[in-house]
Amino acid sequence: MRSYALGHSINKLVHGCDYNPDQWLDRPDILSKDIEYMKEAGINEATLGVFSWAAYEPVEGEYHFEWLIEIMDRLYENGISTILATPSGARPVWMDHKYPEVMRVDGMGHRNRHGFRHNHCLSSEVFRDKVRTIDTKLAKIAGGHPGLIAWHISNEFGGECFCDLCKEKFREYLRKRYHNDINELNHEWWSYFWSAQYNDFSDIEPPYINGQNALMGLKIDWRRFTSANYADYISVEIDAIREASPNKDVPVTTNLMQRFYDIDYRELVKKIDFISWDSYPAFHNDHERYEDTMMESAFDHTLLRCLKKDRPFFLMESAPGHVNWMNYNKLKRPGVHEQFSCQTVASGSDSIQYFQWRCSRGGAEQFHGAVVDHSGTDDTRVFRDVAHLGEILSKLSEIEGSVKRNEAAVIFEWDNWWSIDVSGGFSRETKKYDITCLNHWKSLMPFGVEADVISVNDNFEDYKLIIAPMLFLIRPETIEKLKGFVENGGILLATYMTGYVNENSLCYEGGFPGDGLKDLFGIINEEIDTLYPSDKNGIRMENETLKVKDYAELIKLIDADVIGTYTDDFYKDMPVITCKKYGKGKAYYQAARIENEDMVKLSGKLLAESGIKIRELPSGIEYHARYGDDCIYEFYFNIGEEAVEVSRLNGIDMLTGKAVDDSVTILPGKFIVLKSK
Ligand code: GAL
């Protein structure tokens, strides 16, 4: 028995759902149908209490947990575990009326009214006290329940508050960061610009929408502060639960979101035990192919998995059918639920969970899909899809706890993302840092190479190839780490917009890329051209021409080899891809953005240099692997439109139990999972 994700193993893949019985407490008929249907659909977990504060404490100081325990008991008796949420994602009306300071103040300085959810001030001591009290009571009562497998803190943290308390805390944060020296802050924020110097920390205001917005350092530090404030806040909840719970071993998580911009997730997750997140890809949209949506989904799983790389993550929410909040809420086509869910497992998840088990009759999400829809029966397409997936997951059950072992990595950094965005210039339309990282990551997949998505603070020694797209904001210690990585034999690719600014968004002096990077790459970047979508340029590399888009830097060689040159414009024949041998490794510089389909050509070259094992995959096949103690689980998904024959396969097909030796034809939308030594 092994499990990295949960402190104690439940020894199976979790197949679960957000369950809101508190909306149906007057309907025992519905509650007993729920259990019957859950068993029928192979559901082995239910997430309870995500927004149940008003059901627990309808009036201040009056608590009702009996319904919760009764439901947890009943679920447990029927083989269904519980993930229990703390209810802080939405507050009861009485609280907002009695303690208005718990409500957020928006970027214009206006306090919100009661309503909606996720609308609390993280700094408010009143709110923190109320949360501590309810969490403590909940943990005492339910924390020793045998059915409890994990704690789920609040729900999808996000947003910011501009109230006076947050403002004061921000100033405190800055005092520490700038050693109580306002001149140091003025220097790092370059507040000499437009007469913005501060005389004292008490002069500083958050970046209100109608306030100071011209200082890059202010904007980035505000995001750093907000992230730190979230981390501080989540500790209040985690500590309350750990202290009060009779069972101290139940692991803690919080549900994250797709490429979420506002919070540096690496800060937020420090104290939680395992990563979980809510994935809602916009399948079948009108602007990309199904395979692009699938690849994006795999990247998103990877980014979040790598927040805690040594263990599996959980998919805390997904839509069994459609959602209700996109511009167009399309149905998932037949087979897509199965393929998406198994891709999630292939990407390192130990669970598939749904939002939601049963449709609400009213409220903002009444037309959000659910396992049980308004017809209230098990005789629906979606229900059958879910039940079918339950069968598949039970066949794949032993995969639980197995991990990833990747030799390539793509760097993704939150403060770099913010810095690129807040810096003026370039193009408002095409900076797209996150998408650029995704595209580099994706360009390795045709070779059967999954890359981790890592921070500059992660251990580089784990990798043979590191791709650092648009590492605009860079610290001296990162520069040293990158040099050490290449010196020891690593292959590094950096791109246009590398090393422009320091951690406070001040430009490096002496040309880009900053400081020691010119030595590492052997180039200096003199200018950057921003291209309109209609502009055309290319890169001549060996016998190929790669298409260029969006950004083209004009670089001068110091002591690097030229790998590719521009094909057009006044910088025709100037170097655009270079390589410098540095110690035992090589540092590549890609000075222009390359069209996705052509990036694969450069990636192939880098992989060949790195010595990472590559696989010849037919087009349309997406490959993933997970490693058990003494075996490997390999997943092949056909995400294209044609049937594809994959050859040189070997292992046991985990869904049919049959041995596979050599070729298998995989139909579009289908997949196989092979286990081998
Ligand atoms: C999530 C949220 C759930 C539900 C769901 C709908 O973002 O955590 O509570 O609102 O979206 O898709």
Overview of this structure, please?
- By secondary structure, this protein is of the alpha/beta class.
- It has 3 domains: 14-160 and 251-397, Alpha-Beta Barrel (TIM Barrel); 408-610, 3-Layer(aba) Sandwich (Rossmann fold), CATH 3.40.50.880; 621-676, Immunoglobulin-like (Sandwich).
- The protein is built from 17 helices and 25 strands.
- The strands form 3 sheets. Strands 10, 11, 12, 13, 14, 15, 16, 17, 18, 19 and 20 form an 11-stranded mixed beta sheet that branches. Strands 5-4-3-2-1-9-8-7-6 form a 9-stranded parallel beta sheet, with helices on one face.
- Helix 5 packs parallel to helix 8 (216-244).
- The protein is globular and about 75 Å long.
- The two termini are 18 Å apart.
- The structure holds beta-D-galactopyranose.
Would you kindly provide a brief summary of this structure?
This protein has 677 residues and is α/β, with parallel strands linked by helices. The protein has three domains: 14-160 and 251-397, Glycosidases (TIM Barrel, Alpha-Beta Barrel), CATH 3.20.20.80; 408-610, 3-Layer(aba) Sandwich (Rossmann fold); 621-676, Immunoglobulin-like (Sandwich). It is built from 17 helices and 25 strands.
